[in-house]
């Protein structure tokens, strides 16, 4: 816990945010306490490139992106932002923007090419050099062990290979993940104090194995539920491996993407729809992580799909590993109701395919929440972030929170002066950081905020068609252009207070 900054917001009797004596703030500006981490986040496959260099082997996303029709435009992460070769420049850019923290993910197949056995020194050296550069610039690193790029060998072993295969549907993958966690702790434990095991296990399990719109592209509800459990188990085993190898002051957590699920009406049927999606989106992870058990209603809802016999009694004790922090990724709320046509495809903002990512929820319909839309056609609603931070404060008392991802895609373009103006993103950030501040004022222990994303990048099944970055990337020249939102965020980080929105 010693690695985590202390973060509290004082509140006046009138309920307005008050600042400490050494933190003056202009009237009307939401002000954050000293030590609050102002960061940005990325993921390895989305930015690194160098997909076939220095011993890196294919991940499930390399395979998936090469499958015709799976990724818009046939795009791949082969080059992406070329961060592998340009990381020093990118870290200097972070420093120029005044970022205090950087959340990056480690490419598992870059450091352990088959997902088992010894590490490749070249991969470890890359991450050592990256972290050294961050520390030299005074930027706190947060390492994420898994952001969806499973070594392909663990999904479908090569002929004659020794891996068991099956990806996250297999218990072996959880065990291999713990081994990999130990490797990374040994390599970076003297440099990195904040560690996240998994990023958005819901996406890995249900978009990867149920709807098939993410790698590995399977459409099997039993496989998705098995994957969810083995992701939970992988987290628990990896947390144990990290704790055994890291200094005592290291902080270990997980980044979830909980859904702020709201019923369309207060009818019993719509409330039941909310309950079902809450179980599949949220409590399937927080049940074992925070309480050591899967929710009874989830087991009942999915009883016709599986008997959950893949869960062993000792698994739940392993998953219930004490968390030093909990990461919350948030983009938009979910509005649900009972479906008028139970056979209609379930489309929820994540799923654009014909297969549902929601096992046992065929009777649920999704509706677009009100509000401005981003380029992803996701409604903008900062209140969902406040709600989640307060909810998880209540669910996990004493566990500090980070907003580990929050951001928006817009149709950004370079103007004739070579600049990128993105006022919509500035308004988005102002609204969501105000929502974070409100949650803190009401008692949420939020220690930092990581903007998604530092750079425009490979946006999974959308290829390079969507731009989430605060920094514009010209993929042809690899030029970086900080957008107006990057400059706005830099002011917020420098002042510890939200600048006005022009």
From TrEMBL:
Reaction(s) catalysed (UniProt annotation): Hydrolysis of terminal, non-reducing beta-D-glucosyl residues with release of beta-D-glucose
Molecular function in Gene Ontology: beta-galactosidase activity
UniProt keyword list: Carbohydrate metabolism, Cellulose degradation, Glycosidase, Hydrolase, Polysaccharide degradation
Enzyme type, top EC level: hydrolase
Superkingdom of this protein's organism: Bacteria
EC number(s) on file: 3.2.1.21
Active site, UniProt feature: 405
Spans annotated as Disordered: 1-27, 339-363
One matching Pfam family: Glyco_hydro_1
Entry-linked InterPro entries: GH, GH_1_N_CS, Glyco_hydro_1, Glyco_hydro_1_AS, Glyco_hydro_1_beta-glucosidase
Family label: Belongs to the glycosyl hydrolase 1 family.
Protein name, entry field: Beta-glucosidase
Organism: Streptomyces polyasparticus
């Amino acid at each position: 816990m010693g690695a985590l900054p202390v973060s509290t917001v004082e509140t006046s009797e009138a309920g307005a945010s008050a600042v400490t004596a050494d933190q003056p703030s202009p009237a009307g500006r939401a002000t954050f306490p000293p030590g609050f981490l102002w960061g940005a986040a990325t993921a390895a496959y989305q930015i690194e490139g160098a997909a076939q260099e220095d011993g890196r082997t294919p991940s499930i996303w390399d395979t998936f992106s090469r499958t015709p029709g799976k990724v818009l435009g046939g795009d791949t992460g082969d080059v992406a932002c070329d961060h592998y070769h340009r990381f020093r420049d990118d870290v200097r850019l972070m420093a120029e923007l005044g970022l205090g923290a950087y959340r990056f993910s480690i490419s598992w197949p870059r450091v352990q090419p088959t997902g088992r056995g010894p590490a490749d020194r070249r991969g470890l050296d890359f991450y050592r050099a990256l972290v050294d550069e961050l520390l030299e610039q005074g930027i706190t690193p947060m390492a994420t062990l898994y952001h969806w790029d499973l070594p392909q060998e663990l999904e479908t072993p090569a002929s004659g290979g020794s891996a068991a295969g099956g990806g996250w549907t297999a218990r072996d993958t959880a065990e291999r993940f713990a081994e990999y966690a130990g490797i990374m702790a040994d390599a970076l434990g003297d440099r990195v104090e904040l560690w996240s095991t998994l990023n958005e296990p819901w996406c890995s399990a249900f978009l990867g194995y149920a709807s098939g719109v993410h790698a590995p592209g399977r459409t099997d509800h039993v496989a998705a539920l098995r994957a969810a459990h083995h992701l939970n188990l992988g987290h628990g085993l990896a947390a144990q491996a990290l704790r055994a190898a890291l200094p005592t002051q290291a902080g270990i957590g997980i980044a979830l993407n909980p859904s702020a699920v709201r019923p369309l009406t207060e009818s019993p049927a719509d409330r039941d729809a909310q309950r079902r999606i809450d179980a599949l989106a949220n409590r399937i992870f927080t049940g074992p992580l925070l309480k050591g058990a899967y929710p009874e209603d989830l087991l009942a809802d999915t009883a016709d799909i599986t008997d959950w016999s893949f869960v062993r009694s000792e698994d739940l004790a392993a998953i219930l590993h004490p968390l030093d922090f909990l990461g919350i990724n948030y983009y938009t709320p979910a509005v649900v109701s009972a479906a008028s046509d139970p056979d209609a495809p379930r489309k929820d903002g994540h799923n654009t395919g014909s297969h549902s990512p929601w096992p046992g929820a065929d009777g649920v319909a999704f509706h677009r929440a009100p509000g401005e839309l981003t380029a992803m056609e996701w409604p903008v609603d900062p209140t969902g972030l406040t709600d989640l931070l307060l909810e998880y404060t209540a669910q996990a008392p004493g566990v500090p929170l980070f907003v580990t991802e929050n951001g928006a895609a817009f149709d950004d373009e370079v103007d004739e002066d070579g600049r990128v103006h993105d006022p919509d993103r500035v308004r988005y950030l102002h609204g969501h950081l105000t929502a974070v501040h409100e949650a803190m004022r009401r008692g949420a222990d939020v220690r930092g905020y990581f903007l998604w994303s530092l750079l425009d990048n490979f946006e999974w099944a959308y290829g390079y068609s969507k731009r989430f970055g605060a920094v514009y990337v010209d993929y042809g020249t690899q030029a970086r252009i900080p957008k107006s939102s990057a400059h706005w965020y830099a002011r917020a980080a420098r002042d510890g207070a939200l600048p006005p929105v022009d």
